[in-house]
Amino acid sequence: MDCIFCKIVKGEIPSKKVYEDEYVLAFHDINPIAPVHVLTIPKKHIVSLLDIKQEDKELVGHLHLALQKVAKEMGIDGSGFRVITNIGPHGQQTVFHLHYHLIGGRQLEWKM
Ligand code: 5GP
Ligand code: ZN
């Protein structure tokens, strides 16, 4: 399958890893929009939030706990941060493998 993030999971494309376990990988975004910009993904190929199935419930919970670990690892749990997952054209999703942007390290604005 021609998926950039599956290739990152397999180590075929290098990444700067922040956290890894059996089910989840977190790595620095190649084009950061803030001092901290980490992508957290399931190792399983899921296209977007819309494609999460009943059988993935445990995986999604696990991924949320991994997001906590990443925030602590990056030292932004105290200052706060934002988690975003983009879906489809209006969401401007560009990589079709479920991923959560964890963004922080500076004051964020909300207006888009
Ligand atoms: P999306 O726009 O789909 O929500 O987010 C995709 C993100 O993946 C973008 O922020 C983009 O910078 C990042 N990205 C795309 N290709 C690569 C890559 O090869 N390595 C890393 N580390 N990030 C990538
Ligand atoms: Zn994939």
Structure notes:
Helices cover 21% and strands 22% of the residues. The chain has 112 residues and is an alpha+beta fold. The protein has one domain: HIT-like (HIT family, subunit A), CATH 3.30.428.10. Strand 2 and strand 3 form a beta hairpin. The longest helix is centred in the middle third of the chain and has 17 residues. The radius of gyration is 14 Å and the shape is globular. Bound molecules: guanosine-5'-monophosphate and zinc ion.
Q: How is this fold's topology laid out?
A:
Layout: H1 4-10, E1 17-20, E2 24-28, E3 36-42, H2 57-73, E4 81-84, E5 100-104
Antiparallel strand pairs: 1-2, 2-3, 3-5, 4-5
Brief overview, please?
With 112 residues, the chain is of the alpha+beta class. The protein has helices spanning 4-10, 57-73; strands spanning 17-20, 24-28, 36-42, 81-84, 100-104.
Tally of alpha and pi helices: 2
Integer tally of domains: 1
Which ligands occur here?
guanosine-5'-monophosphate, zinc ion
CATH architecture: 2-Layer Sandwich
The rough form would be described as globular
Look at the structure and give the CATH class. Alpha Beta
How many whole angstroms does the radius of gyration measure? 14 Å
Low-pLDDT runs:
none
Structural class, from secondary structure content? alpha+beta
* Strand order in space, largest sheet: 1-2-3-5-4
Kindly identify the CATH topology. Answer: HIT family, subunit A
Distance between the termini: 33 Å
Order of helices and strands: HEEEHEE
Average pLDDT number: 97
* CATH level-4 homologous superfamily: HIT-like
| Number of E-type strands | 5
- Largest beta-sheet details: 5 strands, antiparallel
